Amino acid sequence: MGGIRVIRHFGRTRFSGVVLAAAAAFSMTLTGCSTDEPDRAGGGAGGDVKAPTAASPSPSRTYALSKAPATIPSVRTHVPARGPGWRPGPGGGVVVAKGSEALADEGRMLAGELKLGYRGAVPARAGDVELALATAKQGAPESYTVQTAGGRVRISGADEAGAFYGTRTLKQAVTSGGLMPEGVVRDWPDRPQRGLMVDIARKHFTAGWIEDRLYEMADLKLNQLGLHFSDDQGFRIESDSHPEVVSSQHLTKAEVRQILDLAARLHITVIPEIDSPGHLGAVLAAHPQLQLRDAAGRPVRGAIDIGQPASAKLVDELLKEYADLFPGRYWHLGGDEYQALTRENPEASFPQLAAVARREHGPQARIQDLAAAWVNDRAAVLRPEGKKLKAWNDGFFRGGVVSVDKDIEVEYWTGKEIGARQPEEYLSEGRRMVNVNDEYLYYVLGQPNEFRYPTGRRIYEQWTPLVVRGTTPVPRKYSDLILGGRFAVWCDLSQSQTPEQVARGIAMPLAATSQKLWDPRKPTRSWQSFEQLARQLGLA
Question: Using 50, 70 and 90 to split pLDDT, how confident is the model at 135?
Fold first, then answer.
């Protein structure tokens, strides 16, 4: 008996062989991750596709009701039906519906993965997969419907991303079970931002390694990749405006464009981060005159002197250069761990900054106000470029005369900073938040500062997007302000693992994160079963 064979190469899943598995008998199931109602409003795409009514058994063969396809993340709903399902076979192909020609790239990709021909915008015939954009404006963004009946599959997306995610479901169903089960899948994500962040500043990762992660992310229906490419240890992307700051090991702009092109085809947005005003050691190594010094004249590692106009000029030149390189809608400003604010008495330790704060923001202003204004000023540089902005939660301060602008999303990672603020404090102000909880979602190389490598099981069984800090969820009334989450790889002790070890180490935690961002309800599949499925799908 033949089947799809999964081949792993640096994390990328490839397919070979032809599916020849016989149809299996199925028992009835209505699946999401539980029998509860979804936590957030949403629905599947494709109002033009109706769920089948209970079909009469074939006069020559009786089929049990189908089961939901086995996928990661699991589909939210499946209406079972009687029938043989669909499997790739000779003569079958992938087509796009008339008026849905924008899905040609998705069609060609799926055809290549399933070893089928791609025939373009022509009528579907027996054995085909048809891709379509929903004709009615129904369904949440990124939602889709997969209808399997009559020896055909129709995937209808509320948008191009939704249709693409439908192809991921089909691909995984064929890999895990040999076929797409009869019936109708309607599926949609719980959160709009679902991603992975990689610290490529402290450790150099090749373009190929990053591309492999993009393929894995796409199969998991993750839609954001953060690249933290500037820190004390390195600046890792080629620069035309300031080549002197770039590390010897770095990505060329041509390589970045290649990464961005692939990400766009996989419906993933790349979010760049030049962290400031802290974590600028690599930039300051080439511009030591801009490094912050305390009252005793001692340099402060990684911290730029935000009281000098030349500091803003340098950083803004870099921001403008890379805003042209990265076309995505998001930009991460950083804003965390500015070392001037970790001193017991910042104003006494840095009287020059305190004087600038009072001069620019009034007699009651402090250094924290100068730091908040720095973040706002960098945001003002990027807004004309059409960017939606983010900053780490410890760049937002309470009790000052200057507040970080309300349109800047809070990326909440820690409750360990000086003057730590609970997530509810930000949420009660109406601030939008992305969950990067360091208790569950931080993979820190070398495990310094009491960090431990996160396990997929702990994320799968305990974490939800509402668990923003520690292990306690925020009140459900704030749910709509929590836009999603991101699993983060930090390379503090960069030589602790090779890139290949990092890829293997994050595989199961990333799969678990994708499941809980797509559907935060308690999973019905056990952890052991989930782990086995991940291996079967080539995701672990």
Answer: confident
pLDDT > 70: percent of the chain: 88
Question: Tokens at residue 249, please?
Answer: 């090991």
Structure tokens at 357: 């704060």
Alpha helix segments (H runs only) across 277-403: 281-285, 309-325, 346-349, 351-361, 367-382
Half-sphere exposure of 129 (CA within 13 A, CB side): 39
φ/ψ (deg, to 5) at 258: -65, -45
Alpha-carbon distance 344 to 514, whole Å?
40
Give residue 461's region: left, alpha or beta (phi > 0; psi -120 to 50): alpha
- Residue 528 per-residue DSSP state: H
Average pLDDT over residues 412-439: 90
Q: Are 329 and 388 in contact (CB under 8 A)?
A: yes
Q: For residues 540 and 30, give the distance between their C-alpha atoms in angstroms, rounded to a whole number.
A: 27
Does this model's pTM top 0.70?
Answer: yes
> What whole-number distance in Å separates Cα of residue 365 and Cα of residue 363?
6
3-state secondary structure of 149: strand
CB 82 within 8 A of CB 65: yes
Buried/exposed 284-302: b ≥16 CB within 10 Å, e otherwise: beebeebbbebeeeeebeb
Give the span between the Cα atoms of 271 and 285, in whole angstroms.
Answer: 25
Residue 440 one-letter amino acid: Y
119 touches 95 (CB < 8 A): yes
Residue ranges of the alpha helices (H) in 326-445? 346-349, 351-361, 367-382, 423-428
In this structure, what token pair is assigned to residue 416? 């360990």
H or E stretch covering 254: helix 253-265
Residue 415 scores a pLDDT above 90: no
Cα 440 to Cα 150, 373, 448, 456, 471, distances in angstroms: 45, 31, 15, 9, 9
d(CA 82, CA 261): 41
Q: What tokens were used for 184?
A: 């109708």
Question: What is the Cα–Cα distance from 421 to 358, expressed in whole angstroms?
Answer: 25
3-state secondary structure (DSSP) of residue 102: helix
Q: Is the dihedral of CA 41, 45, 48, 53 positive or negative?
A: negative
